[in-house]
Design brief:
By secondary structure, this protein is an all-beta fold. The protein contains no helices and 22 strands. 0% of the residues lie in helices and 48% in strands. It has a four-stranded antiparallel β-sheet, with no helix packed on it.
Length: 257
């Protein structure tokens, strides 16, 4: 995995090589690993791993038959770490006390990737068939709130728009088919989304930074890059600037918790 230094925007490798690292989560307080500043890495081959502040790497949970491919993490309203299991077609939870993984809901699309929090602790996921689901993590039941399969939408990554002060509430979602970043304002899935920007290819994650800008990681072209998108309070295309030069293929962004 890579770390972008805040001081000079330089890029450096962080920890030893992890095979098929698909997702990262910065455990700022150590709530889930016991080590403040550790990074949880989800691997499609090797389970969940921890990269410690000294860059040593240790296993957290080996998958065995419990899960397949951890793809995107959030901390829900119960302060539990949950993640989508791409190819496993499930929503899962890390029991950091017992160091096991529990299934919150199975039987989902095997293309489920993105996960994000909504208002009042609600949890949303999106998948490559253009489907957005609202989940109840207590009962393990979900409902489809948007299905754009007929429009050939391919929803991949999303972030909560209310993390940007002054910006409209709702979900920002990248559609791989149209290369657009879309805003479902106020979590209204009955109306057409607003196009925030277009021409984004190979996106691997979206996240708002502390400066209010939207950061977009991409593996399009030679190598990878992180783009900084400045947004007006009213959704509008913004200016792009390369951040950190080229990164490892398929970079993911994560917020701190």
């Amino acid at each position: 995995i890579n770390r972008v230094r805040a001081s000079d925007r330089g890029v450096e490798s962080w920890g030893s090589t992890l095979f098929d690292a698909d997702s990262v989560f910065f455990d700022a307080t150590g709530a889930f690993t016991g080590t403040p500043g550790a990074v949880i890495v989800g691997s499609g081959m090797n389970g969940l791993w921890v990269v410690n502040p000294d860059q040593s790497v240790s296993p957290l949970v080996v998958p065995l038959d419990g899960f397949v491919n951890p793809t995107d993490f959030i901390v829900d309203s119960r302060d539990e770490l949950i993640f989508t299991d791409y190819e496993g077609g499930a929503l899962r939870e890390l029991d950091h006390g017992a160091l096991t993984v529990n299934t919150l809901e199975g039987g989902l699309s095997e293309t489920v990737e993105a996960i994000e929090m909504g208002p009042d602790g609600s949890v949303y996921t999106a998948n490559r068939t253009g489907e957005i689901r609202l989940h109840d993590t207590t009962s393990g039941i979900s409902a489809i709130v948007r299905d754009d399969d007929e429009d050939e939408r391919e929803y991949r990554w999303m972030t909560a728009a209310d993390e940007r002060p002054g910006f409209a509430d709702g979900l920002l979602i990248w559609d791989a088919a149209s290369t657009e970043i879309l805003l479902f304002a106020d979590f209204n899935f009955n109306s057409d989304p607003v196009v925030v920007g277009s021409g984004f290819r190979g996106v691997k994650d979206l996240a708002f930074g502390p400066d209010g800008a939207l950061y977009v990681s991409s593996d399009f072209g030679e190598g990878g890059s992180i783009l900084r998108l400045t947004l007006d309070p009213v959704p509008a295309p913004g200016a792009l600037a390369a951040l950190g030069g080229f990164l490892a293929h398929g970079s993911r962004l994560r917020r701190c918790f």
